[in-house]
């Protein structure tokens, strides 16, 4: 009896369109069109960005706690944090300061704030949590966590003793930090920041230069923010952590520098996958698969630097399992992530608005196309091996061998036909 194929589907979310769970379900739908008997293991993965609190609450038997907090533009937004099954809390910075909360026409990382992140931290402490995990990712800010510290009671003053307004650009005028009002509960709580260790606050690879343009910064604004964050790093170090490296230590640049701001007040910065993948038994689940399919909104040079498809590829490679990645867009440098194959979910040029609206359909179709191509390649390899094993044409030494179909071929013959073209 032939065992069914085992396909592990381990994607990230697709920003502004699909959660990690929705992406996994769409990929699985495409797989099952081709291999209806396949065992599909859904492993939706989060990286600290959008959907992290909800995913961890669901995985631990916890719950989401709705609340209102200050959004990245300074106005109230509906947000939430999670209380996990063990009583610890998760604050997802994207739920209150994410790029998706900033309309495209108003994106300026020099003006947006993480103030709401500090408010969510206070709410989590109010709930009784004494261990709080902060998920970093998908931010629309670049204020070094200054807003979060202000919400936690820190005063940031200019040379005239006036409180600085929100936004990273204002940090150029920072003259003094008054930490006298810092929430005392932080001293008795464990604050853990799940971050990308490749992201640093300052320097040529600092967050202003690497991520500022993605958040709407002009070249002039990038340079302005770079100077401001240098000032911020120096002031933070002097006020809270003499001798520490808050400029270029791993993770200090997480979420526009939120990592540095929280590290200054005692948070521990940890590689996000060491924290967020704990308990998923991911390595064993990937090792059991015949094929791993991952995906994300974009594959590019950043994929190998702490993104989910890069992490999945690294773990699958160690297990000797091939990896296919599907993405909304493909950029230069994606090949460095160690993926065996990757492709865009769009069959051709499509408007971005259409791709976002129809992401689930496009992703399922792309999974189907890719898997049919893999089946074709497997048949060609099997045919080539059989051809090399036969005697030459005209030889009378033996009859041409009859080759039994491979497992992939037998499965493909049972598969349903491709979906008809959509109108």
Automatic annotation (TrEMBL):
Enumerate the GO terms in the molecular function aspect: glycerate kinase activity
Q: Which residues form a coiled coil?
A: none
Please give the residue ranges the record annotates as the region Disordered.
385-423
The EC code for this enzyme is 2.7.1.31
Question: Which UniProt key words apply to this protein?
Answer: Kinase, Transferase
Note the InterPro entries from the entry: Glyc_kinase_flavodox-like_fold (IPR018193), Glycerate_kinase (IPR004381), Glycerate_kinase_RE-like (IPR018197), Glycerate_kinase_sf (IPR036129)
Indicate the family of this protein: Belongs to the glycerate kinase type-1 family.
The name under which this protein is listed is Glycerate kinase
Please give the organism: Streptomyces ficellus
